[in-house]
Amino acid sequence: MESEIQKLKDTIADYETVLQSLVADRAALTAVVRALAESNASNPEFQRHLKLQVDIRAGRQLNSQMTDEQIDLFKASLNALLPQQLRDI
User: Fold this and answer.
1) Helix (H/G/I), strand (E/B), else coil: 82
2) Distance, CA of 13 to CA of 32 (rounded, Å)
3) Are the CB atoms for 40 and 46 separated by under 8 Å?
């Protein structure tokens, strides 16, 4: 019983390490994407490609098993990465 509890503790510790790494990775990616989006916000080519990618993703979401809540979460996450002038895409 004690060894099983220790295995569980070890598993939780490993999970926490992975979770911290994922949070750090996401924060770094968010910073880079946000900087790229802000620096290219007035670039028509960037706007065109962004709209294309959003449209492709929207079509795939509608044809998937994603729930409305998951789709709304994606939209909120996308908007958080974009400067205000690109959020209507």
Assistant:
1) coil
2) 29
3) yes
